[in-house]
Amino acid sequence: MEYSCQTYQLKCNECGRTYGNRPLSGCPECLAPLEIHYDFEAIQKQTPITRQSIQNGPHNIWRYAAMLPIPEGFEPDLPVGFTPLIRAKNLGKRIGASNLYVKNDSVCFPTLSFKDRVVSVALANAQKFGFKTVGCSSTGNLANSVAAQAARLGLDACILVPADLEPAKILNTLVYGARLVRIDGNYDHVNRLCTQIADEYAWGFVNVNLRPYYAEGSKTQGYEIAEQLGWRLPDNVVCPMAGGSLIRKIRKAFNELIALGLVEDKPVRFFGAQATGCSPISQSVRQGWDYIEPQRPNTIARSLAIGNPADGPAASKMIRATGGWAEDVSDVEVVSGMQELAESEGIFTETAGGVTTAVTARLYAQGRISPDETTVVCITGNGLKTTDALVGRFDHLDARAVRPRLSDFADYLRELDGVTENELVAAD
Ligand SMILES: *Cc1c(COP(=O)(O)O)cnc(C)c1O
Ligand SMILES: [Zn+2]
């Protein structure tokens, strides 16, 4: 269960020891998180990475394969990623931002969240390590993506989730034929159990013993943002945080692009978004701590509900080092954020996107971001998976049915709030 590779390997963040390529959850010596370390000089010597070489690649994350921990001989199968980066003029107008972009991973292939990026890189390695069964501890979206991609690759999947997960996220896992185990506890209980299972069985858990590989998949969102801005870095990134991995990896992606000479060096500030009901990282940022104080999650933003985030301390330090900030918003603001993005840009995001949208609005209101700065808001999941968050928001759902007659329709229109006489003008 090991493979050798000239261009990348596991390295400990703390003690600097290296471990080649094998399934490992943390440094066996000091228990610190492991990260993939690349020898970009060797990579550049083998096949130079240029804007052109990337643009010649497929229209998905595999165009960046040379900058990812992808085992030799791996043949990419699924066209994951390369989601739209759209100019958000309408949302910008509402919140006082004139240079706002939305990176829309709510339409990521194949399971409508940014987790498809991390899972595809993790499973490429799971196959190389020889795992027949893969799994994860999940707050929902990861479960969906592991189940779908394991099915496609012919791997068995065993997925553990907190028992109170949204029904849609459970259904979106079961449909792929995955084994799903609901655990009577919160995500942090589930994750601890998965660590024990990974030690006991020869299973590949994408966010436990494959975590260093998994996490690198998040970099592709950063690469895409820079490429889609015309090989430019933005001034600011606003990103939701659960374990605190994605926000760090977007920064890592930007730094690699600078080191490779693919974009011009410039400071980018990172802003983290959480729900108040689970806000250990935003609390740490605001208090100026180098650690996080674990919390017991209580929020509708379940995909972000990790009370003891693995990359929390590192994310907190990184955000402050860039001159950024973090905020958290109430569940009521989360739902308003979902509606605001849908009404202004036609993008239906899940609760996590409501968090990010509401936090973005607050950052502009606080003056932490100036109106004309280029800011990218990371929308990471799809609203169709969390429709229960909107129950009770629209009285139309139980409005009376109108008889199929023009005059009844006209009467009905006049009863409605907000219908203007203008709309009722007859056609010539
Ligand atoms: C997992 C997840 C995140 C956060 O990811 P981390 O890398 O754990 O911080 C954000 N948004 C959605 C929708 C997610 O599912
Ligand atoms: Zn170490």
Structural commentary:
By secondary structure, the chain is of the alpha/beta class. Among the domains are: 48 residues, no CATH class; 205 residues, 3-Layer(aba) Sandwich (Rossmann fold), CATH 3.40.50. Helix content is 37%, strand content 14%. The strands form three sheets. Strands 3-4-12-9-10-11 form a six-stranded mixed beta sheet, sandwiched between helices. Strands 7-6-5-8 form a four-stranded parallel beta sheet, sandwiched between helices. A two-stranded antiparallel sheet has the order 1-2. The longest helix is centred in the N-terminal third of the chain and has 15 residues. The mean pLDDT is 95. The structure holds pyridoxal-5'-phosphate and zinc ion. Pyridoxal-5'-phosphate binds next to α10. Keywords: Lyase, Pyridoxal phosphate. InterPro entries: Ser/Thr_Dehydratase (IPR050147), Thr_synthase-like (IPR004450), TrpB-like_PALP (IPR001926), TrpB-like_PALP_sf (IPR036052). Its EC number is 4.2.3.1. It comes from Granulicella tundricola (strain ATCC BAA-1859 / DSM 23138 / MP5ACTX9).
Q: How are the strands of the largest sheet arranged?
A: 3-4-12-9-10-11
Give the C-alpha Rg: 22 Å
Largest sheet, in brief, is: 6 strands, mixed
Taken as a percent bin, the fraction of beta residues is 5-15%
CATH class of one domain: Alpha Beta
Count the DSSP helices: 15
Helical content stands at 25-40%
What distance lies between the first and last C-alpha atoms, to the nearest angstrom?
Answer: 75 Å
SSE pattern, N- to C-terminal = EEHHEHEHEHEHEHEHHEHEHHEHHEH
Family: Belongs to the threonine synthase family.
Cofactor: pyridoxal 5'-phosphate
GO biological process, one term: L-serine catabolic process
Protein name: Threonine synthase
